[in-house]
Amino acid sequence: MINTFIYSNFNYAPLAWHFSSRNSQKKIEKVQDRCLRLLFDDYSSSYENLLNKSGQPSMELKRLRILALEVFKTLKSLNPEFMKEIFHPSPYLTHKKNNLQVQSRRTVKFGNNSLRVLGAHIWNSLPENVKSISVLNKFKEFIKTWEGPKCKCYLCLK
Prior knowledge:
The chain is mainly α. The protein has helices at residues 2-10, 14-18, 22-40, 47-54, 59-75, 108-112, 115-125, 128-131, 136-145, 154-157.
């Protein structure tokens, strides 16, 4: 029932949910927290313990995984052509040939919290051997187990 009534709403256009306000993102996590507490009839465990028990990632990690998948599909020409205008190879890091250019912006809302900037950050945080994968199914296998960027501070993610 949770998959049908709750997750289906958040799995529809998940990147749109990801760029909503931080307060809205906390509410989405709270919905998952409440669902897991109801499912396991466990009202004392932490949210992280409930996630481990269910085998589900947090909603934020799920959205970051989808973002990484969309960047992969764009770079491998599996997405519509207009997506190629969003991500560009980095001209600066020659030793990391698979990195993307992260364009700096003056504003947070329309700059750092944009698909162009966050997508490049997430892609650049992936290990080099993963960025060189050329088959979609292999990338999907990896991304299911990816735990997100190592550093989750504001400066690294934004």
